[in-house]
Amino acid sequence: MEAIKRVEASESSAASVAKELGLKTSTLHGWLKRYREKPEIPFPGSGKLSPDDELIRKLERQNRELREENEILKKAAAYFAKNLK
Fold this sequence. Notes:
Blueprint: H1 2-9, H2 14-21, H3 25-37, H4 51-84
Helix pairs in contact: 1-2, 2-3
């Protein structure tokens, strides 16, 4: 994050900041891109998910639960249909 702040705050190029810090220029450019796309949470980690990833995880869990419920209902319907005959 400090590298990004140095590029954003100064008139130095990303290449010169990367060279000073011993980073590859492409790495710093990637970090800058992620920061500029989502400055509020550019680097989710340490247990923190981006809002999109959090929504995906929630929907996947909900989908899994609904599939399980659907399988239970199918088995119950087959059981009761068998006993009606």
